[in-house]
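Problem: given the chain below (272 residues), write out its structure.
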Amino acid sequence: MASKLKKMVDDAKEGNSTELVLVDKNIVNILEIPGFVNLKNLTKLVLAHNKIVSIPGNIANFLNLEIIVLFNNMIEELPTTLSSMPKLKILNVGMNRLSSLPRGFGACPMLEVLDVTYNNLNENSLPANFFCLDTLRALYMGDNDFEQLPPEIGRLKNLQILVLRDNDLVALPKDLGELTRLRELHIQGNRLTVLPPEMGNLDLVGTKQVFKADGNPWVAPIADQFQVGVSHVFDYIRSDTYKFLYGRHITAGAAHPPKTNDKSKKISRIKK
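Solution.
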């Protein structure tokens, strides 16, 4: 296998290729890829479906990297050096074993797409400056353990896609209504009962927009509107009637619906 990998790296080097794609090659350690450290011109690195446990901090020496795909590995933590990569635009670390993101991560200067789907992240996993990622256009956080979404989410003004499906969310912050560029919102499979009226500011109704919210224990008035259609849901949450009901619901402080998803058997939970 090592000789095969070496040939692929050599081919990339000789052809002056700026992309290295090594999918499903049983790679455990990135630094053991023969000749890898010499590929300083790489702009795209795809190492999905391998057995990589950690990312070396010196990945940041690849100053031209724009795309890193590490989907489906065994990574438990990311290096703090990622945030110093000047051209990094797309980072896919979905389906790994992350329980936190590194300190200072929000300093990534160019990051547009972040995929952390199917890990073990929650609201306490995010570094203090996470919501400084104002270049972010798409954030995929489905299949994690979020119960709350920090109100600072409202700072990500350029966000167009936000995926929060299959978490344990019990409420959404009113600050979500500040994401006026949002065109896709996935909140299905959570423990949500109501929507903040401020979400009425969002433009999520139409053929080019996506709003998915099934699999939540909605209060009856919202559930009824979902039966008729998404546009009716948004009309309803903009109404004074709903704002009154919402205020009353929050004041009542009802107990949150119980967790229904047993996540103990998730691949991301299994220890090596």
